[in-house]
Amino acid sequence: MKFKTLLLATALVGVVAGAAQAQVSVKLGVLNDMSGLYSDISGPGSVVAAKMAVEDFKAAQKGIKAEVVSADHQNKPDVGSAIARKWYDQDGVDAIFDVTTSSVALAVSEVTREKNKVFMVSGGGTSDLTGEKCSPNTVHWTYDTWALANGTGTALTKRGGDTWFFLTADYAFGSALERDATQAVKKAGGKVLGSVKHPLSASDFSSFLLQAQGSKAKVIGLANAGGDTTNSIKQASEFGITQGGQTLAGLLVFSSDVKALGLQAAQGLVLTDAFYWDQTDANRDFSKRFAAQFGGKMPTSSQAGVYSSVLHYLKAVEALKDAQKIKDGHQVMAQMRDIPIDDPLFGKGSIRIDGRAIHPMYLYEVKKPSESRSEWDIYKVLETIPADEAFRPLNEGNCPLVKKS
Length: 405
Fold this sequence. Notes:
The chain is an alpha/beta fold. The protein has helices at residues 2-21, 43-57, 77-89, 102-115, 145-158, 172-187, 206-214, 227-238, 255-261, 263-266, 281-293, 301-320, 329-338, 387-390, 400-404, and strands at residues 24-32, 64-72, 95-98, 118-121, 138-140, 163-169, 191-198, 219-223, 247-250, 270-273, 341-343, 347-351, 357-358, 361-366, 379-385.
């Protein structure tokens, strides 16, 4: 009887200790394109990545109850902002992650500022998020148009591609990418001969590609993403554009795009990105575990960015360890800036006052079919762009927060 009493007492102590440890709770919202042209870039895979981050952080063991919810913004700013507002006002969401489509990201950033919550962008690309539209409640984690444009634009121009024509998606991201790439090309000594805008999720690029072909530019810069990029490249091949001596530059290309295109069509394509699954041991470990939960698909940089940004957010929550403080976006943001980024996937860095997460970027080249050893063996590293060079200088973005700091 004494032994049973002791066991019961021990069990009760464990239950009480566990209850005492569960001190704070947070709700994380993954918002992106779940079914459209950007769903392979982020989509359901980003939800998998967010849940992996919660598990790997061992949030429950650290007294943090972390719940992940998700929604599809359909690439529409009004839909995205409505979901964000409902999440913050009614559903108790504390932070929103990912958000492909720059116009939606800009809208969600404004709602997040108004509600004083936290927004960590992985899928959205416009550098305006840390420029004129910067917010004290937003972190831009993975990549941006300035980093992409300077990585790829500068490299190709210096390699002899000194005349450009842009094929640009007609929304905020495309405009920002063309703008930033134009600046990079001119700075490297090149010229921009013209550009043409196409609607989001276009199916027929023939008229746009004929204009680009007629420009005689050495490089056709694809200032678009996802299905628009892959369709552009496929149809350009049909028109014999690359065979005619012009080079295609994918200014935002994800590993999922290259996989969809195949190495035969994509070989030799030069691109800039923040993450590749086979680059380091840590990348390979995360990616193989991700693939096991996601139909064998390796993660894109956007999905990896969701994983890493959730980890950093949870570090800040653990450091604050106060139910009231973690509901205050400004306090969480301050804590995230205080904690250096030391991420297994993105390396060492920091979060600047303008909300830009600083970390290395990489210049990749798509392998030839003969160079690939396995299904997802698609990139080789041409260059590492150091963290202090990868993103726009702090004093050049016109972020109002920088003027105040």
